[in-house]
Every structure is written in structure tokens, then in C-alpha cells.
Hints:
By secondary structure, the chain is an alpha/beta fold. The protein has helices spanning 3-18, 86-89, 94-97, 116-126, 138-146, 156-171, 191-201, 219-233, 253-266, 297-305, 307-323, 348-356, 361-373, 386-394, 417-432, 438-445, 447-452, and strands spanning 22-31, 40-47, 50-55, 61-66, 71-74, 76-78, 81-82, 101-106, 131-134, 136-137, 176-180, 207-211, 236-239, 270-274, 279-283, 332-336, 378-382, 398-400, 404-405, 469-472, 495-498, 501-505, 508-509. Strands 1, 2, 3, 4, 5, 20, 21, 22 and 23 form a nine-stranded mixed beta sheet that branches. A six-stranded parallel beta sheet has the order 10-11-12-13-14-18. A three-stranded parallel beta sheet has the order 6-8-9. Helix 6 packs parallel to helix 7 (191-201), helix 7 packs across helix 8 and helix 12 (348-356) crosses helix 13.
Amino acid sequence: MNRLGVWLVAAGLAVLARGADYDVIIAGGRVVDGTGAPARAADVAIKDGKIAQIGAITGTATTRLDAHGLVVAPGFIDVHTHSDDLVEKLPRSEHFLRMGVTSIVVGNCGGSKLDIGAFFRGIDEQHVSPNVATFIGHNTVREAAMHGIFDRPPTETELAEMKRLVDRAMRDGAVGLSTGLIYLPGTFAKTEEIVELAKVTSPYGGIYASHMRSESGKILEAIEEVLRIAREAHVRAEVSHIKLSGENSWGRTAAVLALLDRARAEGIDVCQDQYAYTASSTRMRQLIPDEAFDGGTATFNAILADPQRKADLVAKMKRNILGRGRLDYAYAVVASFRGDGTLNGMNIVEAAKKLRGSDSLDDQIEVILEIERRGGAQGVFHGIAENDLQVFMKHPMTMIASDSGERVFGEGVPHPRGYGNNARVLGRYVRELHVLTLEDAVRKMTSLPAEHFQLTGRGVLQAGNWADVTVFDPEKIGDPSTYKDPHHYAVGVPYVLVNGVLVIRDGEHTGARPGQALRHTPPAPVPH
């Protein structure tokens, strides 16, 4: 061996002896740091789960990733998910990770785990792939305190118990209170009840997030309620999955955004989140008037057994759909119905034709009632205008969030947003349609949600922050998942790191579960 060979071997042994300078170096990429600043060429070094350095890096690393031609961004933060059962059902959360999401917020739309402390302990002990924060759900505490679903205000004792449950959740690390005011039992709650519960979160720096009472004809009144709650409770606010649903409401984006902008000018800290699709998804039960469930399933079944009460219910359902400018339920698609999987993927018109031999409006309503009688189903509802979606997306205070629960690959015909939301924004709305710049799209997925939800040390690529990193190909990223064929993971995301650990490598899940429980800990209580 010549002198050079001897020197190289000695140098290599010396490096092994002292250990590498960094755990990971992501080299040669285009860094989009999450702040909205222009992309720049730089390497990113990671050590002990944190960003160690950004720039021209000459040190050694245990793992070196080649990011030439790729964008290096902060891990995406999805502030509106329904993956509350991930510990038990889907701890790898592959559908989120493979579209670049490294942190999720659960407990939305009023539904959460009741014991937030136990929920976080489960994450600590069982381990999951993404970082997880949670709300405490208003529907959850209302039903627990009132021991059922009731169309009445809580008693003083019941309200006190609801406050106790919310306070316990905030002490255990919840980010705030969520409501789902089209869902039972939240739909029966008066504004004053919600104000009192939101006030409990205020000393902890909590946020109030709402699936509002209306996303269609009465949307302005619904937003006013959100703003009143934020104003009187002295909390930040979040409008969940902003949209204008149904043809009669399309085109009102200017009025909606003007109302929110006026509130911000007044001093209310309010943002909105949005998914990048023109269909929503929730339970098929939402097609049935709420009063049919006052008292639970027993009330609903009693109505179906009483010819007159059932006729009254059917008549109201007809008035509701015709009043929204629709002649049938073709916009409503069965996503997951355990009672009869052959209906999955069919709209209600098609299901009525299959089950009853007729697609009349009466037969469609009969199918909706029968589905609910047999345990209910998840649905996909087409009713959002593409132009409205783009206007909302462009607004500087709109975050990108999927509104998705767990996605078990191959199960049912779920909404594609759970597989492709972030990738769709970067592929369709940045690369193809130029609705957003690359830097602003990344900001809406990273620093904006991190700041609004007070997720300290996340959302921006800078030294000292947690090493949640998404590396993607801006020319290839996309969402092959569709409404008819949803079970496809996002493409164009070769690397994802959570707390400095590779969770996605070469586009595949590594099996790693480095996610943390993101307990909300504001710097200090905020007195009011």
C-alpha cells in the first residue's frame, strides 16, 4: 500500500473512532425553510434529533442523503385530522408520512379522547411514527357530563363537570377546545355554553377550533359565532375546513374572507384550514335531521316504527334537499358501509336503484334511513366549487389540513384526501395551476400552523429546531389517489424525517416510530 492509501485508511479509522460529526446530512437540496423566504441551495445537518446546521456543510455523517434536484422543507403539520385511534389502529400512519406530514392534530370537530393524559401516555409507551397533538372535544365532554344526547342546556352541575373535564384536559396538554356544531350532541349547545368552556382554556393559552353550524347558507352567522366565542373567552380561533358547500352558496368567498379579515384587524387571532378537494366527507347521518336522534338510536328507531312520525321526517328531508337547490342525492357517495360493502363507492341514487329498483327521491330517502338503521356509514359529499376552493387557498391565513382519519390500505372507498392532500397542493396547485408559489404553499403547511398552534421548535428549518424534515421532488410530487380508486399513496416524497429519524426512505416506510406526544405547554398562563 502506498503512502496515500495508508493515510486514507488511518483517516477513516480516526473518523470511526471519534464518531461522525452529524447523524444525518441532507446534501445538495433546495431549502424552502417554511417562513415564505425564497428557496436557496444548502445542505442540512441533523444531530440528536435537532437541526444542527444549514449551509455548506463539510463534516461527516452516519447517514448522507443526496437531495440534488429535490426540495428540503420542514415536515408538514396537519392541524385537522381525525386519527384519534392511531395508537391502537395505525401507529405507523403511513398515509400521512408518505405525503410529507410529520405532525398531526387530532380531537377535531368536537370529538376526542376524554382522558387526554392517558392518550398521551399511550403515545409515549406504544410509540407512533408522527408527532401528535390533540384538542379536547366539546361533544365528548358534553355527552360524558350529561350522560346522553339531549336538546337542552346543561344544568349548573353538568356545566361544572364539563368545565372540570376541559380543565383536566388542558392541564394534561390539550391544545384547546374543538366543537362540531353539526354533530350530536354539539348541535344542541347554545353559544353561551361554548363560551364558558372556551374560557377554561384561556389561562392555558388554548385555541378554539370549530366545525361551524353552517358552511352554506348561514355561513356568515356561523363565523360570527366563532368570533364571538373567541372574543368573549379571550382565545385564539380556528375555522375548520373552510368551504362554501352547495351550489346555492357558491361565490360568497369575498364576504367570508372580509368578515375574517375584519376580525383580525379588530385583534382576534383567527385562522382557517382547508383541504384541497371539492368534496367533503362525514357520516351519512348528516343527511337526516338532528332531532331524529334526540335521545339516541332508540329515538331514531321509534320514529321509523311510527308511520306518521316517519312521514314527517321524510317530508322534512325532502324540503331540506330541495331547499339547497338539489333534486336528488347523487352528490352523496357511500364510502364505508359495514352493513353492505357492495354499496361502497355508489352514490345514493345508484344505491337506491340497486336496492329498491327505483331511484325516486322517496326511494333514495328510504336507502339513507335504512343505512343508518343498520349502523350508519361514512360518506363523501360533492358540493364545493373549484373557484371558491382556490380563492380560499390563496388567502395568507389559510393552512393546509386533510380532515382525514386513519386510512387502512384497501379498506372501503374513502375520501382521497387522507392519501394525497399535501401532495395535491404541491402538484396540482403549485406546479400545474400556479395558484400558490412553492414557498407560500410550504409556509401554509409548516410555519403558519406551528405558530398558530404554538408548536414550539417546529415548522421552520433553522438550527436548534426539531428535525422534522420532508424532502420531495417538485416535478414529481402528486396524488394518484382518486374518489373512485383512493388507495394509492402520494408520490414524489423520497425522504421524511421525524425528530431526526428517517421514517420514509426511498419512498417507503422504514417502520420507525419516533413520534412524540406534543403536549401543549405555553410559556406562562395568560391572565384575563
